[in-house]
């Protein structure tokens, strides 16, 4: 074993030779001063090290259950239910919808509820539109009922503010890819910064403003390959370090599905067909009837006027029920269901 | 431990053909390119020096630092007041915040251009009066920028500032000389101007506001819908870039259009801002200016800062001196 460690670079090709027997045993033994017997042990060890072990079904099921228990809340119980209990670490969840449907708002909620879980968790918000508002995130924590329990547990707003980082200036795809690559490098440092060590959530708001200008009228596959490379890099990072990824996406208009009316419009997430293969779960937010506004009184006694929103599971690679939806009302600092309104 | 070497060239935004050439010449990782000069690279892979330079520029990108919420909140931000307290409040308290993209939309004659002119004067308010003390770029696509009116509003502004502080250094000449006016005749010119805005802004670092009046005008005719969407997205992306990197506010004026369908029923019509959802995604705040019973109102319907949503409509008026609060605020209702 020690002999392998001593052989310096290029280690991998050497290992491969040992493994597949392409090496001249006599020469190898002379060069590394080992006996042929020792060489055999080294070969066995190399094979042992590169072996992939099978899993049995029961183990896999248990593993899955263990993973389920690690699900993270997005901050609103009804949407957690749609997601099968919450956001899955290591997965990419997409939230798409028109503007003002509450995509960014839902991301803020996830940021806060994950950092509220304990005193270590950190989160990164990648803002590609320069539209984020730090003060609003702070207000949300201080005033919303969603985080009332966390406040009672003694969670401190300054500690939360320190643990949420906002990455601005990622307007172009090169910048975005650089940020992800930089994260990758940070994780490989010998002494990992605490922020990266406890990173639980990465939010990208929004992916479409970065990539859709690349997508042309003439079908050109190049931009799609850029998206794929980006998501693959992101997914590797997420799986390796168990980070939850949340991405917002805008909508594009498809052909009318209701042929009775020429004007009915079918909306779907932007970025085309390729994109649909790249995320694990897609939630679709849409506007409700704007005249149906409800009032909710939160625990601090503030009256919150809410407008209706609908959240639907549009696609899922996991065992979520596609087409399941929930209706909720969204106000200044609160999400609330219909029965909670007065 | 792996280092920058582990980043494959494939991940760069280079045309696949060039990546192959780089590979053949022995460049496989980012690190390999870091020491190359444009001249040697162009020789190695057989492209023009210009192209080689653009490849090298890509990998020499500076690292973008992320900042914690705490440090962002502490950072001082300036805002351009509109001189109407109600609208200032809608936009987050102090007016149009630098670094953001804000859209005003409304029917013709509601006062979009007046708002644009007022903002390009107010951006010059000095720091000691809590203004950003900057300059303005006014991009006019409709030809509605009337210089007499600008002078009128400028005089009104000077008069108002003189009320608060004695002998402000403001005068008509300096105000007018700090507004850079571009007249744009088609969407290609608009696109070209915005693409090259970097250069202008580097020469004029004091510019803190870009007004585009109106963004919709050249996009409402003749353009194929998908081309339009793409051009708009490109413009929006560039605007986001300059708003962030030069720390300036971008104000877009938008026209209204009739939308069929929507939430009120499949065959009903509603009046909505033009150009669809593309622009809406890029703007952090959107304000609709509308008229009711001969009074003017501003209604906030998208916001990043989210003031109390209960008060999303405020009244304002346009007088000879520019945009002002209404003397007797009345309840707009909903």
TrEMBL record, chain A:
Keyword entries, A-Z: Hydrolase, Nucleus
Q: Which residues form the RecA family profile domain?
A: 68-251
Q: Where are the transmembrane segments?
A: none
Gene3D superfamilies from the entry? P-loop containing nucleotide triphosphate hydrolases (3.40.50.300)
Q: Does the keyword Lipoprotein apply?
A: no
The UniProt entry, under Pfam families, shows: Rad51 (PF08423)
For this entry, list what GO says about its biological process.
Answer: DNA strand invasion; double-strand break repair via homologous recombination; reciprocal meiotic recombination; telomere maintenance
Question: What GO CC annotations are associated with the protein?
Answer: microtubule organizing center; Rad51B-Rad51C-Rad51D-XRCC2 complex; replication fork
| Molecular function in Gene Ontology | ATP binding; ATP-dependent DNA damage sensor activity; four-way junction DNA binding; hydrolase activity; single-stranded DNA binding
Under the heading InterPro entries, the entry gives: HRR_RAD51_Paralog, P-loop_NTPase, Rad51_C, RecA_ATP-bd
Per UniProt, subcellular location reads as: Nucleus
Q: What is this protein called?
A: P-loop containing nucleoside triphosphate hydrolase protein
Originating species: Gigaspora margarita
The taxonomic lineage of its organism, from the top, reads: Eukaryota, Fungi, Fungi incertae sedis, Mucoromycota, Glomeromycotina
TrEMBL record, chain B:
| Alphabetical GO biological process terms | meiotic DNA recombinase assembly; reciprocal meiotic recombination
For this protein, the record's InterPro entries field holds: AAA+_ATPase (IPR003593), DNA_recomb/repair_RecA-like (IPR016467), HR_Repair_Mediator (IPR052093), P-loop_NTPase (IPR027417), Rad51_C (IPR013632), RecA_ATP-bd (IPR020588)
**Key words, A-Z:** ATP-binding, DNA damage, DNA repair, Nucleotide-binding, Nucleus
UniProt key word DNA repair: yes
A GO CC annotation given for this chain: Rad51B-Rad51C-Rad51D-XRCC2 complex
Pfam families per UniProt: Rad51
Give the classification, highest ranks.
Eukaryota, Fungi, Fungi incertae sedis, Mucoromycota, Glomeromycotina
* Compartment(s): Nucleus
Main subcellular localisation:
nucleus
What molecular functions are annotated in GO for this chain?
ATP binding; ATP-dependent DNA damage sensor activity; crossover junction DNA endonuclease activity; four-way junction DNA binding
The family database entries (CDD domains) matched by this protein are listed as: Rad51C (cd19492)
Task: Spell out the protein name for this chain.
Answer: DNA repair protein RAD51 homolog 3
The RecA family profile domain covers 76-256
């Amino acid at each position: 074993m020690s002999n392998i460690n001593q052989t310096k670079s290029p280690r991998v090709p050497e290992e491969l030779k040992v493994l597949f027997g392409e090496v001249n045993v006599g020469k190898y033994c002379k060069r590394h001063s080992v006996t042929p017997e020792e060489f055999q042990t080294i070969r066995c060890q190399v094979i042992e090290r590169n072996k992939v072990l099978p899993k049995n079904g029961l183990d896999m099921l248990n593993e899955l259950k263990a993973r389920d228990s690690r699900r993270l809340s997005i901050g609103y119980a009804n949407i957690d239910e749609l997601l099968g209990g919450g956001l899955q670490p290591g997965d990419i969840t997409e939230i798409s919808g028109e503007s003002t449907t509450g995509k960014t708002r839902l991301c803020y909620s996830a940021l806060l509820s994950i950092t509220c879980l304990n005193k270590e968790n950190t989160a990164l918000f990648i803002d590609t539109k320069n539209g984020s508002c730090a003060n609003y995130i702070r207000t949300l924590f201080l005033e919303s009922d969603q985080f009332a329990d966390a406040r009672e547990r003694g969670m401190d707003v300054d500690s939360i503010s320190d643990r949420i980082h906002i990455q601005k200036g990622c307007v172009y795809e090169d910048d975005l890819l650089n940020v992800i690559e930089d994260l990758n490098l940070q994780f490989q440092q010998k002494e990992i910064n605490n922020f990266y060590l406890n990173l639980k959530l990465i939010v990208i708001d929004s992916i479409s403003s970065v990539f859709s200008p690349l997508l042309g009228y003439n079908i050109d596959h190049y931009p799609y390959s850029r998206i794929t490379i980006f998501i693959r890099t992101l997914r590797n990072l997420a799986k390796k370090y168990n980070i939850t990824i949340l991405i917002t996406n805008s909508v594009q208009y498809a052909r009318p599905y209701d042929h009775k009316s020429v004007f009915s419009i079918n909306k779907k997430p932007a970025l085309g067909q390729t994109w649909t293969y790249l995320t694990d779960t897609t939630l679709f937010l849409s506007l409700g009837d704007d005249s149906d506004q409800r009032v909710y009184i939160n625990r601090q006694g503030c009256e919150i006027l809410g407008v209706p929103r609908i959240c639907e599971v549009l696609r899922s690679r996991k065992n979520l029920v596609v087409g399941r939806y929930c209706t909720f009302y969204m106000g200044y600092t609160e999400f609330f269901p219909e029965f909670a309104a007065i | 431990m792996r280092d920058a070497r582990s980043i494959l060239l494939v991940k760069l935004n280079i045309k696949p053909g060039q990546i192959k050439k780089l590979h053949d010449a022995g460049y496989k990782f980012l690190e390999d390119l870091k020491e190359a000069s444009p001249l040697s690279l162009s020789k190695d892979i057989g492209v023009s020096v210009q192209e080689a330079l653009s490849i090298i520029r890509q990998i020499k990108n500076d690292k973008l630092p992320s900042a914690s919420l705490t440090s962002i909140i502490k950072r001082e931000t300036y805002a351009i007041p509109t001189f109407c307290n109600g609208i200032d409040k809608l936009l987050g308290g102090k007016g149009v915040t630098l670094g953001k993209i804000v859209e005003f939309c409304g029917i013709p004659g509601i006062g979009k251009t007046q708002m644009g002119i007022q903002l390009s004067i107010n951006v010059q308010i000095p720091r000691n009066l809590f203004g950003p003390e900057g300059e303005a770029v006014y991009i006019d696509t409709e030809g509605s920028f009337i210089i007499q009116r600008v002078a009128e509003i400028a005089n009104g502004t000077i008069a108002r500032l003189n009320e608060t502080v004695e002998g402000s250094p403001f005068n008509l000449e300096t105000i007018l000389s700090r507004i850079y006016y571009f007249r744009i005749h088609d969407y290609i010119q608009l696109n070209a101007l915005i693409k090259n805005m970097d250069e202008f802004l580097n020469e004029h670092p004091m510019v803190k506001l870009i007004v585009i009046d109106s963004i919709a005008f050249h996009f409402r005719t003749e353009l194929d819908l998908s081309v339009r969407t793409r051009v708009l997205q490109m413009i929006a992306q560039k605007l986001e870039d300059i708003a962030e990197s030069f720390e300036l506010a971008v104000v877009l004026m938008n026209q209204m259009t009739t939308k069929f369908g929507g939430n009120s029923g499949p065959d009903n019509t509603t009046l909505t801002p033009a150009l669809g959802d593309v622009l809406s995604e890029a703007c952090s705040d959107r304000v609709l200016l509308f008229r009711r019973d001969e009074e003017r109102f501003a209604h906030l319907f998208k916001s990043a800062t989210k003031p109390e949503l209960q008060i999303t409509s405020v009244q304002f008026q346009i007088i000879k001196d520019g945009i002002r609060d209404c003397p007797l605020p009345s309840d707009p209702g909903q």
